[in-house]
Design brief:
The protein is built from 14 helices and 16 strands. By secondary structure, it is of the alpha/beta class. α4 packs across α14 (331-348), α5 packs parallel to α10 and α10 runs parallel beside α12 (280-299).
Length: 354
């Protein structure tokens, strides 16, 4: 029996080695002479991703470093002493109560200059101060937590929470891109916050022994990516197992409580992410999830804006790269987003009697 098992193991090993050599010969992205650990490469910071811009935050997982500056995706990026992205510094500061913008990299501004984020355009369009509190890779849960913190501090006239479909998925993660993060779980009719204070223990991920050995195989890397087993293979994500649509829905009610407590206005904005325009099956899935969150926001008494139709009317479907860069809104896309948001905010703003 043992000899049979040994022969089987040798045969399997031979087939794997033959497959490794074959894919390295014939696949254009592979090489017979270059043997990096593909899992370690995935975990390594991208050369165009600036370091020293974010720091640990016990409530949010991470947040911008006040006063930090650098280059992100070949574009300058800087933050104020309050940890908000700078904008329009060469212009006179508008007066009046501010608008607080919370969101992910679509709000923070990714691969665009400080003055090219949609909050920067919105500030110029409305001639009112706008605070850009967007943070890359935040989920809806972190956006609501950041809004709770900053609304109490800045007392804004309005709070805009902008999200994409991916932010719904992130609300079901305890680890995202090797960063530990807070998360919510449904309890009864409400939510319970978990993982706070956010643990500081390192995420093993790519450093786990099997990944340090198997990660050198291009065959395994190719196969696991094709099987959509990224989380298992790279180890830089950990799911909580919650119903992310339910959690995101209840977060709209939590956000509405912030709006009521601070006697302000709240607007929930949904942006179409890049593959909404390029991948029809993905588009249908994204739209279903996004519309569900917007419906929950309306049920909570919040104003909503689905920017999809506005982007479609602007011709984005036929010129996606004219509005997006590296999967994010470029300057033209952000200018369009700001116009749509400005129109919605103006329409809902109380008018003074004549």
């Amino acid at each position: 029996m043992w000899s049979g098992l040994g022969l089987s193991a040798v045969a399997v090993l031979f087939c794997l080695l033959a497959g490794e050599v074959a894919i390295r010969i014939f696949h254009p992205s592979a090489s017979l002479w270059h043997y990096p650990n593909f899992i370690a490469l995935n975990a390594a910071p991208r050369p165009d991703q600036a370091r020293g811009l974010l720091r640990y935050d016990s409530d949010l997982g991470y947040a911008p470093i006040p006063g930090a500056s650098g280059v992100l995706m070949h574009q300058p990026i800087s933050y104020s002493a309050d940890g908000l992205r700078n904008q329009n510094l060469a212009r006179a500061r508008p007066v009046g109560r501010s608008i607080l913008a919370v969101g992910d990299s679509y709000t923070e501004g990714y691969a665009v200059k400080d003055d090219e984020s949609w909050p920067a355009y919105l500030e110029r369009d409305l001639d009112r101060p706008v605070l850009n509190a967007g943070v890359r890779a935040y989920g809806i849960d972190q956006m609501v937590l950041r809004a709770e913190r900053l609304a109490a501090r800045f007392k804004p006239e309005a709070i805009v929470l902008a999200f994409i479909s991916a932010d719904i998925t992130r609300a079901g993660m305890s680890v995202l891109e090797s960063f530990r993060r807070p998360y919510f779980v449904p309890v009864g009719d409400g939510l319970e916050l978990r993982n706070v204070p956010v643990p500081t223990t390192p995420v093993i991920g790519a450093k786990a022994f099997p990944r340090r050995v198997l990660g050198y195989s291009y065959l395994l890397d190719f196969t696991m990516r094709r099987l959509n087993a990224r989380e298992l293979w790279y180890g830089d994500f950990e799911r909580t197992g919650v119903d992310v649509n339910l959690v995101s829905c209840r977060l709209m009610h939590r956000f509405a409580e912030v709006v009521r407590k601070e006697a302000t206005r709240g607007l929930i904005v949904a942006f179409p992410q890049y593959d909404t325009w390029t991948d029809p099956p993905a588009s249908a899935w994204h739209r279903t999830r996004v519309l569900g969150v917007l419906a929950c926001a309306r049920d909570a008494g919040l104003a909503t804006l689905d920017t999809y139709d506005g982007f479609a009317k602007a011709g984005v479907a036929g010129n996606v790269d004219g509005f997006y860069v590296d999967w994010h809104l470029n300057a033209q896309g952000n200018a369009l987003a700001a116009r749509l948001i400005a129109a919605t905010l103006d329409a809902g703003r109380p008018r003074s009697p004549p």
